[in-house]
Every structure is written in C-alpha cells, then in structure tokens.
Here is the input.
Amino acid sequence: MSAGPGTTRSLAGTRRGRSIAGLSTLLSLLLFGGVIWDAGYARLYPAARFLHRPLPLLGLATLAALTLVAAGWLAARQPPASTALRLGALGCAVLLGVGTSAWGMFRTGFASTVERDSTLAVSPDGRYAVVRLDTRDWKDLPHTELRVRYRAGLLSRDADRELVDCRRGWPSGRIDAEFVGEQTVRVTPAGRSAVTVTFDRQMRPRHRVDVCHPADD
Here is the structure.
C-alpha cells in the first residue's frame, strides 16, 4: 500500500522541522558561548573597564538561547504546534537574540583593550602575582595598571581594584615589584621611591597608595 500525498508532505515537514530545530540549537549555543567568553574575559581582566557587569547579559543570553531552542523544537514536533505559537516563539527568540548581540557589541565597543600583560612578581606560596597591564581605552588613550592576580589556571582572576595609583600618570620606563610578605608588595617605578602596600583576601589594597606622591612632595 503506497503512502498518499498527505503522508509525503507530513514527512517532508518533519525533516524540515528537524533541520530548523538543529539550526536553532546551534545558533543558541553560539550565542551563549559568546556571552560566556565575554563574561570570562571581564572576570580575568577587570582593567578592560566594561560598562556593565556580565551577569545581566548572561541572563539575557540564557533566555534568548532557551527561547530559540523552544522555537526550533516547536517547528519539529508532531503534531505541529499552531502557526501563531511557532511565529510567536520565533519572534521572541529573534528579539532577544538581537538585543543580546547589540548589548554585547555596545559593551565591547566601550571596553579597553589589554595590549600587554606581564608578570612582575609572584608570591612565595605561588598563589598571587603582581601583573602590569598596559591597556588602550575606547578613545585610543594608553593606560598602565598594576593589579594582583589570583593564580589558579583557568580560574585565575584579577583584582577589581588597582594595587597602587599614580594620579598623574605612570612614568615611562621600568616598574619593579617584589613580594616582601605573603600579601605585601614593594613597588618601585622608574625614577620614584619605593612604596609598600598590603592587600586583603579580595586582593584589594588595605590603604590607597599613590606611588607617584613621594616624588611630588
């Protein structure tokens, strides 16, 4: 007994629906992966100065990805969902996806670029390092920052505050740093006096220190 025309159209529609479902799942994974990368970069490099914390964007991306997957599988299910439901889910997925992408590009456009990342000193127990970050902001202006980094392989992260400040801009030349204790660092910029600063468990300095101040007195 041969299948009728209606059966043939049904099978074709099923194959087409599965293709849409697979494509929507792939797109959702790419979208979510991009936001995960963005969140990881912001965690490792707070010096990049993202305008917003990544958590809200991550939540929006998760919602967009789930909606996109739902839209694809609504198209693949048998019996098929109503046209209004499928179009509604697809419309929500597109709006959320476009919103997530636009928000991500806006954040990235105003973020600084880390041009050089160099380690100046490592703590005696190997858990912490003082790193020098040479960055360039969205106005193409250069900046230099010293931050404490927690060393844990892929889970490494930088402090959300600078270890020391230089309000008038870091002088050109070499910057030396050495640990004189487990959480105490001596910093010596070129042509300046050395300063000593201690940081807490959050890798934040216990007292604000202007490393350029001694030479300005």
Remarks:
- The helical segments are 5-44, 54-76, 83-109, 213-216.
